[in-house]
Every structure is written in C-alpha cells, then in structure tokens.
Design goal:
By secondary structure, this protein is of the alpha/beta class. Helix content is about 45%, strand content about 15%. The protein has an eight-stranded mixed β-sheet, sandwiched between helices. Strands 1-2-3 form a three-stranded antiparallel β-sheet, with no helix packed on it.
C-alpha cells in the first residue's frame, strides 16, 4: 500500500515538474466509469498571487496520461453487492452523490428572494467534491418558491392603490389572496421561476469552471421504460463528460401525485424528496444528501421539550417518531423525507438528512462526505443499544464512584486485574490469535505493526507486574496536598489533587495498552473511554471484560467503556 501511494505521488510530481497543474476531476481511471482519456487535459494557469480558476486546454504527452491513470487509480468507488454504505466513516468512498436542496435552503428566511450566500456555499462544496473525483448530481427545489416571489412582485406592480390596500388588510387578517388559492398557481410559479433559478446555477458553477445541464422530469418518466432508458442514458453521458446535472420536477406540466402508489412499493414523484430518492435508485447513487432547514430527524417536532435529534436511523424505529408540519416554503415535510430516505436505503443508497441553512454550518455537504456526525444517517446496520453519549455519561458516573473509593479499594481493583491477566493467559492469547489470523489473512499490516499486535505469555507477565507497581504507588494520587496558604486566622486554602473527570484514549493495534491505561485511570479516579484499533478487536474485547470484572468488585463497572462503533468521531 505504501509503495502504491509513493508511486502515485511520483506520477503527480512528474506532471507538476512540467509546470502543469492538472485538475484530477478530469483524469480518472477506467474503474470509475468516467469518460475515456484523450490527448487533452484541463489545466489551470499559474498567475501571480495564486492559481487562476479559468480553465484552459493544453496538450500533454501519452506518457503523462498513463502516469496519471496510475496516480488516480484509487478514485472513489461505487457500492458493492447493491448494499448501502453501512457506516458514516465509509461515506468518503461514495463515488456517485445526489444532493437534494429543499426550498427552505434555496430561499431567504423572509421569502423575498434567493439565499445567494447559502447557494454559493453549496455550489462551492459540490465543486470541491467534483474536483476530488466524485460524480455529483443536484436535485433542486426553489423554482415554485422563486416563481411565486416573482409573480407576487408582478401582481403588486399591476394592482391599483385600492387593490394593494385591500390585499394588505387581507394579509393582516391571516387570509390568502384569491390568486394564491388558485390550483394553477403552483404550475405558473414553477414556469416563472425555473429559468431564473437555472441561470443562477449556471453562473455560479461557471465561475468554478464547471458546466451544468438542466434535466426536468415528471412521474411518467420513471414509469415508462423508454423514458427511463433515455433518462439514464442522458445522466450517464453528462457524468461521463464531467457535467453536473441539475434536476427538478417539471411542475409546470406535472400531473397530481398519487399517494397510494407508495403502498405498492413504487414511490410517487410528488415532491423533490421523492424525486431525489427515485433518481438515486435509478442512477445507483452511493449517497443521497437531503438538505432542509432542520438538523435531522427528531423524536418529536423540534419545538417540543421532549424532542431529541436522532443521529443514526435504522429500519424499525419510525413508530417512535412524531412528525411535525412541512417547511415554510416546501411541498414536502419531514415525514416525506423519511419515507423517501427509507425507499432509497432499501435500494442500496445511503442517505443523510441534514441542515443546509444553519448559520455557521456552511460545510454540511463536505462534513457528510467526510463522515462527521452531521444530521441523521440512514443505515441498515443497527447501531449498538448503548450510544456513545450514554457510554460517556456512564463513564462520568462510574468515575465519581471510583473517586469516592478509598485508595486501598482502588489499589485492590488494579491488583485484581493483574491477577486476572495471569490466570486467564490462555484465553487472552486465544483471542489475540484470532486478531493475528485476520491480520495475516488481510495482509494490510506491516511487520512492526504485527509485532505490536501480538501478545505472548512473557508480555502478559510483564504487564501484570507493571500493574502491581501502579497499584502500589496509587495511594497518594488523590487528595494529596500540594500547597497550603494561610488566608486568615482559622482559614486555610489548600491545593489538592482531584480527578479530571472522564478521559478518552485512542490507541492503535496495541492491545497491551488497554489494561495499562485502564489501571492509570482507576488509580486516579477517572472515568475512561477507550477506542482501540480494529485490528485488535478480539483482544480488546476480552481485556475490557477483565477490566469490568475487576471494577465490579466495588460496583464501578461502567467507569471504563470500550467504544465499538465506527461512529465515534
């Protein structure tokens, strides 16, 4: 692996030496299903003070192209076996990504125009991922909302003063104007707003040197076989040419939705959430990002005191969720988003519902793809019954129990752990052998890493002796007076040692670290969260069991927790 990475670096350097800065999004390996290589490569021109963002074409040699093929041989890959990505940490490998922008993200809070700052930030993030080799598609809302604002302005300009005053009184009375009640308003607004919205996308992406293409779809496009094939062919060709497709429902001519279709296993294209889910399934996207004006899925409407954000959503917990109303300008709601997300998940697309318009969180899409805890992640892999937050709270409470024990009691826990290491040598070595067999089979660990992973009878004996030394020296760790200051008669200020609270230690494939760190935490009366390398899974689990068995002598079993999940960022 290291040799391949070195080769990639050398390949890129061979091009940079010639004064060329090649855009990697235009040069990918054949495994990424991108467009064929030609004898032209998109490059950017160096200018004083930085690098120009204006693309220009320059001929490069066939040798350079072959080098670049090898350099980018590990571009993002597509899903395997039709299964959705199970963990956030794997989202960085998503090759084809669909980003759905809700109306609340596109429009301003006062509904008097588009949120240009948010839209520019989203375009910047999509452009960055596009440059990294991801295939990006956008499903945008906002045409109806944008068109409604334009039509409101036109109607206001064409009204007389008397009509304007009457409409103002109607708005103050919380009633709608007649033209807003008309069933055709939605279609007219879509027709009025679609052109301006697309022109804005084209301008913003054009500043980044990226071309866009508009694709308008309706429900029959997904039910008619010829239309589906044409749609798939169009999307594939656009992606092959490194063009970002921007899709929207053709609301100007779209028929009314049929809600009962959902009961038959066919999702209705009744809003852009459904459209994004259907599109993601059609193009076999690896990731679908649904951006709205909420942080994710809550157990109840966010305004209620009992509502809590659901970090990871898996099938079977929908009955515990109480849905609220739809957003201020959108046509769907949170229930629509959950239904669309579940439908896409069943067809092999990972889904994240996140906030795309919160102030100060302008990197929502980048954070999602990077695997950070943003929004609600939909997965078929059921999370552990105990969340990381619960484990941290238990460690805090367990640490308080440890700090309340006497020094002799804490020393007894450590000594008992040392005895268990010697008594259970055979079981520990058996668990460690499983890790060694897996590591050798996978072949992804170097010789020094395998040496760190391996345990032996001698290592365990030395480890037990070290724990006994910690136990013997632990009596003065807490409540030790470091300084005394006589403030006044009968008043003394003392500086003493106290526990920190809860510690978190992340260590590599060294299972012998676990009991050592645990012993130090026990001696200092601190709670502890441990995150070991996945290469030592079996060894860490068994050793952690011994630690908990020792802590249970004084009912402090939860003071030290081992984090198993991959969602611990």
């Amino acid at each position: 692996m290291a040799a391949r990475s070195l080769y990639q670096l050398q390949c890129v350097k061979s091009v940079l030496k010639q004064g060329k800065l090649v855009n990697p999004s235009y040069v990918r390996s054949n495994s990424t299903l991108s467009r064929p290589f030609t004898n032209r490569t998109n490059v950017t021109e160096r200018v004083s003070g930085g690098v120009s963002t204006v693309p220009r074409w320059r001929y490069v040699s066939a040798r350079d192209l072959n080098d670049l093929k090898g350099a980018y041989a590990h571009a993002p890959y597509s899903r395997l076996n039709g299964k959705a990505i199970p963990y956030r940490s794997e989202l960085k490998h998503a090759k084809r990504i669909v980003v759905k922008l809700g109306s609340a993200v596109i429009t301003r809070d006062d509904e008097c125009g588009l949120a240009l700052g948010r839209l520019a930030s989203i375009v910047e993030q999509v452009s960055e991922l596009h440059a990294e080799g991801h295939e990006m598609l956008i499903v945008t809302s906002g045409a109806v909302a944008f068109g409604k604002q334009r039509l409101r302005h036109e109607i206001a300009m064409s009204q007389s003063m008397r009509q304007s005053m009457r409409d103002a009184r109607a708005r103050n009375g919380n009633t709608m104007k007649n033209w807003e009640k008309d069933e055709m308003v939605k279609e007219a607004c879509a027709a009025a707003g679609q052109g301006g919205l697309m022109a804005l996308y084209d301008l913003l992406f054009g500043l980044r040197g990226i071309n866009t293409a508009q694709v308008l779809v309706t429900k029959p496009d997904f039910y008619n076989d010829d239309n589906r094939r044409n749609l798939q062919s169009t999307i594939s060709e656009l992606l092959r040419m490194n063009i970002v497709p921007i899709l929207n429902a053709n609301d100007a001519v779209a028929p009314p939705p049929e809600p009962d279709k959902d009961l038959l296993g066919v999702i209705s294209v009744k809003d852009n959430d459904s459209l994004a889910a259907r599109l993601a399934a059609e193009v076999q996207a690896d990731l679908l990002c649904l951006l709205s004006d909420v942080d994710g899925i809550y157990t109840a409407p966010p305004g209620e005191d009992s509502s809590k954000l659901i970090d990871t959503y898996y099938p079977g917990i929908q009955s515990t969720i109480k849905f609220g109303q739809k957003s201020r300008v959108g046509m769907g709601g949170m229930e629509s988003k959950v239904r669309a997300a579940q439908w896409a998940l069943e067809r092999g697309t990972a889904v994240v519902i996140a906030n795309g318009c919160r102030q100060g969180s302008g990197q929502a899409i980048i954070d999602i793809v990077s695997g950070r805890k943003t929004g609600t992640f939909f997965t078929e892999a059921k999370v552990s019954s105990v969340t990381v937050e619960t484990q941290a709270e238990n460690a805090r409470n367990g640490g308080r129990v440890l700090s309340s024990l006497t020094a002799d009691q804490r020393s007894n826990i450590i000594s008992h752990l040392a005895n268990l290491l010697e008594e259970r040598k055979a079981s520990i070595l058996a668990a460690n052998q499983k890790d060694m067999d897996v590591a050798r089979q996978q072949g992804n660990l170097s010789g020094p890493m395998l040496s760190r992973l391996a345990l032996s009878a001698g290592k365990l004996t030395n480890l037990a002796d070290g724990l006994r030394q910690i136990a013997a020296s632990s009596h003065q760790n807490l409540d030790r007076v470091l300084k005394r200051i006589q403030v006044a008669d009968g008043m003394e200020l003392r500086q003493i040692t106290v526990p920190i609270g809860v510690l978190m230690v992340i260590f590599e494939s060294r299972p012998d670290c676990l009991p050592q760190v645990a012993a130090l935490a026990i001696a200092s009366g601190n709670g502890l969260l441990l995150k070991g390398g996945k290469e030592a899974t079996y060894s860490n689990e068994y050793l952690h069991g011994l630690v908990q068995e020792s802590l249970d002598l004084y009912n402090a079993k939860d003071a030290i927790s081992l984090l198993h999940c991959m969602e611990c960022r």
